[in-house]
Amino acid sequence: SHGQYLHHQYRYAHVEEKRMREIRRTKVSMVFQRFGLFPHKSVMENVEYGLQVQGVDKAKRREKVLSTLEVVSLAQWADYLPSSLSGGMQQRVGLARALATDAEILLMDEAFSALDPLIRREMQDELLRLQKRLHKTIVFISHDIQEALKIGDRIAVMKDGYIVQIGTPEELVTKPADEYIRAFTQDVNRAQVFKTGSITRPTTPLILGQDSTQFALEQMIAQELQQMYVVDQDSKPVGIVSKQTLTTALDNGSEDIAQVMQTDFPKTHISSNLENTFHLYREGLPIAVVDTEGKFQGIVEPADVLASISQS
Fold first, then answer.
1. Does some domain include residue 222?
2. Of 117, 152, 187, at which residue does a domain stop?
3. Domain ends where: 152, 187, 209?
4. CATH number of 208's domain
5. Strand locations in 5-161 (E)
6. Element (H or E) spanning 297, and its range?
7. Where are the alpha helices (H) located in 86-212, listed in sequence order?
């Protein structure tokens, strides 16, 4: 095989040994498949190992270790030996050791494959939770396509030592580069892969304090809608109104949307996968989709979900 590894435009493939050791100590951390813990050292001593190699003084590294153990929910196990911990807990120790050095890149080589299925799912969820907080560059190697699709932002699929396709989880499933990729992803649960944002239908909402019930009803009739969402001045959804409710309100002489809108409505984030929205459809309303700032992006209805997960 051949190629090059670039980081901040720096070529690492052919650096001298001394520089490579420095990179390994300060730029990259690793989490191993078989944990790679020192059995004779405590959890704290294992986690501080990388900092010790860097020459960080004892007081500072102990402070850093305790804060890192808090992140992975293992602070109370700091003085225990690895043999006292379950497999999942031991892997969290390995993860904490990698995080403690504040390396820019985290290399995880089959990190969860030695765990049983339940603990493996828990560790995947833990990694996703930590990534939302830490925003690391993570290179995760896996033979499990479902695992890759769950935790990866971009995935490189390899065959016989060559990269066949690189893309987002949705791109791999919906736009396979060849028959190999198509066969590789054919049994994937699409509802676990597709994000709500990818099928959100943009709609124009009503604005609280600006639009009247008369205007709202006219818009619904013109657009052939049964419901419309209402947003505040910051474009955040605050309610939903139906055609029937608006008609009744106008018959009673009410022009204030705030008086007739329903404030209990289903809402989800653009990054949520479709599977996590299924329970919201029980209310019989379109789901309001919001971005990272909570601003209204549009709606998703059951028909949209069914169309997106269909294999045809």
1. yes
2. 152
3. 152
4. 3.10.580.10
5. 6-7, 10-11, 28-31, 105-109, 137-141, 155-159
6. strand 296-300
7. 87-100, 117-134, 145-151, 169-174, 179-185, 190-193, 196-199
Same domain, 228 and 115: no
For residues 311 and 309, give the distance between their C-alpha atoms in angstroms, rounded to a whole number: 6
User: Residue 128 carries which side chain, given as an amino acid letter?
Assistant: L
Q: Provide CB contacts within 8 A for 136, sequence distance 6+.
A: 99, 104, 105, 106
48 & 132 share domain = yes
Residue 74 included in any domain: yes
| Residue 301 CA neighbour count, 13 Å, CB half | 11
Dump the DSSP string for 214-271: HHHHHHHHHHT-SEEEEE-TTS-EEEEEEHHHHHHHHHTT---HHHH-B----EEETT
pLDDT tens figures, 150-167: 899 999 999 988 899 999
Cβ-contact 62, 44 below 8 angstroms: yes
Q: Do 296 and 288 form a contact (C-beta atoms < 8 A)?
A: yes
Checking DSSP bridges between strand 162-167 and strand 155-159, what pairing results, if any? antiparallel
Count of domains observed in the chain: 2
What is the CB neighbour count within 10 angstroms for residue 64? 18
Range of the domain at 305: 197-309
Report CA dihedral (120, 95, 193, 110) to the nearest 10 degrees: -70
In a domain, 127, yes or no: yes
Residues 37 and 16 sit within 8 Å (Cβ to Cβ): no
pLDDT digits (tens, 9 = 90+) for 220-235: 899 888 999 999 999 9
- Tell me whether residue 290 is in a domain: yes
Dist CA 180 CA 108 (whole Å): 25
The overall pTM is greater than 0.85:
no
What does the alpha-carbon distance between residue 127 and residue 139 come to, in Å, rounded to a whole number? Answer: 12
